[in-house]
UniProtKB/TrEMBL annotation:
InterPro entries: NUDIX_hydrolase-like_dom_sf, NUDIX_hydrolase_CS, NUDIX_hydrolase_dom
Domain Nudix hydrolase: 38-166
Gene3D superfamilies: Nucleoside Triphosphate Pyrophosphohydrolase
Keyword Hydrolase attributed: yes
Transcription regulation among keywords: no
Cofactor(s) listed in the protein's UniProt record: Mg(2+)
One Pfam family hit: NUDIX
Source species: Streptomyces atroolivaceus
Name this polypeptide is given: NUDIX domain-containing protein
Length: 176
């Protein structure tokens, strides 16, 4: 049962997103007006060091009023390679430049409303380059034992679904 997007019109646009109204044809022949948000892709990255610790940011999200651990992440600029964007964001937000980035997963955090894809990467090494240029993005940056991730997710300390999914997969890949 596939829905078909017959037409879209932009009802609002700014440099970060577009809100569109789509004329959707349902399988039974009815039409549905459906609002959707068009976003640029997001790239995120972290590193797992030799002690099996993962580099995370502790930050506040004013929209939900929540605090939580996250990976460094940001929007992929027009024409930018996704892995390069992940590396740039990690260095800007943590002060650590990742080594070779490996794809971890790509997720669609809210695919019933938003078209954004979040591309998560990880590395086995990173080089400290200095205090993060975008230190306003988080209250602190810490190396957290990867073995603690499942309990942190269960306690709600990693509230963003994309971050929780990526960190749980990384935990499974590294620690079984």
């Amino acid at each position: 049962m596939q829905w078909t997007n017959l037409n879209e019109q932009t009802v609002y646009e700014n440099p970060w997103f577009r809100v569109n109204l789509a004329d959707v044809l349902l399988p039974d022949g009815r039409h549905l007006d459906h609002y959707l948000i068009r976003l640029r892709a997001v790239a995120a990255a972290t590193v797992v060091n030799e002690a099996n610790e993962v580099l995370l940011l502790w930050r506040h999200r004013f929209i939900t009023g929540s605090w939580g651990w996250e990976l460094a992440a940001g929007v992929v600029e027009d024409g930018e390679d996704v892995a390069a964007a992940a590396a740039r964001e990690m260095e800007e937000e943590t002060g650590w430049r990742p080594g070779e980035l490996r794809p971890l997963m790509t997720v669609e955090p809210a695919n019933g409303l938003v078209d954004a894809r979040h591309h998560l990467f990880w590395s086995r090494e990173a080089t400290y380059t200095g205090h993060p240029a975008d230190d306003f993005e988080s209250s602190r940056r810490e190396w957290v034992p990867l073995k603690l991730v499942p309990d942190m997710v269960a306690r709600g300390e990693i509230p963003a679904a994309n971050m929780a999914a990526g960190l749980l997969l990384l935990h499974h890949m590294q620690l079984g």
